[in-house]
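can u do me a favor
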């Protein structure tokens, strides 16, 4: 294993943390941050979340709100001014965000005698000590993250396109089931999978693109809402998630933020996807098995 692989990822993550901490008064350029790590935004944000516990944007938002709470507790400036300094255009939008994090309004928080800090898996809070940017530990799992490298064949997919939140892709799978049965291609399908195209950090939730699909033989005729997708052959890292789909995000985070930086591999351009080895139709949530794939250089 190349000894500097994790260090290169960790250095990129620490640079981004520094950009976030010193840039609380400006909007993040998420694409520029990813370019410094020589990764696509989609993959970099998964690496960052795996190593830090939250995405760059989530860290930026939380530290802004922690700074606002710090100011409310120590200064007498109007709440509206604190809201503007925190990047919110209106008092109402600031109050909604603040209440979501602290379960009270800014004014109520100012009157509190005891103030509980926000949760952070790395313990990084405002005000951030300068030394912590270079010495603060990255997240390590309590158990080793297991993944294997596989040479995957080219996969031909009969898919239904989904536009919107990724956690509602089940709607596309319902349409897919109806369409493949109607087209009499279900008996030729060999696997059920989902492909994710966009980074939720950069694309509005309503515009996220994904596909619900089944693997079919090349040349399978498709019509109507069914569209053809091709996943290129190549080397992929594969990890297996066992349990409810709601926890898939944690396994993705560990694959990208734990296993990948410690491996000798770098992620390549291309799509990531999930293959479902069973479904909720015949399996309890704790028994669901999902394989996660990321392309490697």
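np, heres the sequence
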């Amino acid at each position: 294993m190349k000894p500097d692989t994790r260090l290169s990822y960790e250095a990129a993550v620490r640079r981004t943390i520094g950009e976030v901490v010193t840039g609380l008064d400006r909007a993040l350029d998420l694409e520029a941050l990813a370019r410094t790590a020589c990764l696509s935004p989609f993959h970099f944000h998964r690496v960052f979340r795996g190593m830090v516990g939250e995405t760059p944007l989530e860290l930026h938002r939380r530290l802004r709100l922690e700074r606002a709470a710090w100011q409310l507790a120590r200064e007498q400036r109007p709440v509206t001014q604190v809201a503007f300094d925190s990047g919110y255009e209106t008092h109402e939008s600031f109050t909604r965000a603040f209440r979501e994090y602290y379960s009270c309004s800014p004014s109520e928080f100012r009157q509190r005698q005891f103030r509980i800090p926000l949760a952070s898996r790395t313990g990084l809070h405002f005000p951030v000590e300068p030394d912590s940017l270079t010495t603060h530990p990255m997240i390590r799992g309590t158990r080793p993250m297991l993944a294997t490298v596989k040479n995957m064949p080219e996969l031909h997919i009969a898919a239904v396109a989904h536009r919107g939140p990724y956690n509602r892709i089940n709607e596309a799978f319902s349409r897919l089931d109806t369409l493949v049965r109607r087209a009499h291609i279900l008996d030729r399908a060999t696997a059920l999978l989902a492909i994710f195209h966009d980074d939720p950090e950069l694309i509005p939730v309503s515009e996220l693109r994904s596909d619900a699909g089944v693997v079919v033989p090349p040349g399978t005729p498709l019509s109507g809402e069914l569209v053809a997708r091709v996943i290129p052959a190549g080397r992929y890292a594969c990890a297996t998630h066992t349990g409810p789909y709601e926890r898939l995000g944690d396994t993705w985070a560990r694959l990208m933020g734990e296993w990948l930086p410690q491996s000798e591999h770098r992620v390549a351009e291309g799509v990531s996807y999930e293959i479902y080895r069973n479904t909720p139709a015949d399996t309890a949530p704790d028994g669901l098995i999902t394989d996660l794939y990321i392309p490697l250089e």
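Residues 1-139 form a domain with the Arc Repressor Mutant, subunit A fold (CATH 1.10.10.60). hope that helps!!
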